[in-house]
Amino acid sequence: MKVCVPTKDNNGMSGAVEQHFGKAPTYTILDTDSGEVSVIPNTSEHMGGPDLPPKFLHKNGVEIMLCSGLGYKAVKMFESYGITVFVGAGGTVQDTIEAWKAGKLCNASAENSCAEHGHDDAGHDHHH
After folding, report:
1. Where in the numbering of this chain does the Dinitrogenase iron-molybdenum cofactor biosynthesis domain appear (predicted)?
2. What pLDDT is stored for residue 113 in this prediction?
């Protein structure tokens, strides 16, 4: 199973989690079956590419998305591609994978979407 974490860099399991999944410079993908870690550049629509992030990640075989937070519309888009989303990610990719395996991340829903990354901040410019 391929598990994806939006990241700020190309540091593999030590990579820092990016708070805005759509504008993450990279996506770190862990294949839980083989243990292989790959980091791919974000070439989705948000970065000038042709596809929105859910479609882009689906094309890369992602089945699970672990992110800080996202809007409910994005959750529904991920679900339409068969990708399950968990929110509450933070720290490094390793931290996030361990938290997910321990059941500490929440399955994304209408109730918890856009609740994990400071939407109450004044001047926060965020578009889903």
Report:
1. 15-101
2. 72
In angstroms, how far is CA 37 from the centroid of its own chain? 15
Longest dimension (CA), the chain: 43
Q: Which fold has domain 2-80+92-107?
A: Nucleotidyltransferase; domain 5 (3.30.420)
The predicted pLDDT at position 112 comes to 79
Domain extents for the chain?
2-80+92-107
Strand spans (E) along 8-122? 26-31, 37-41, 62-67, 84-87, 106-107
Task: State yes or no: pLDDT of 120 exceeds 50.
Answer: no
Query: Beta partners for 2?
Result: 31, 62
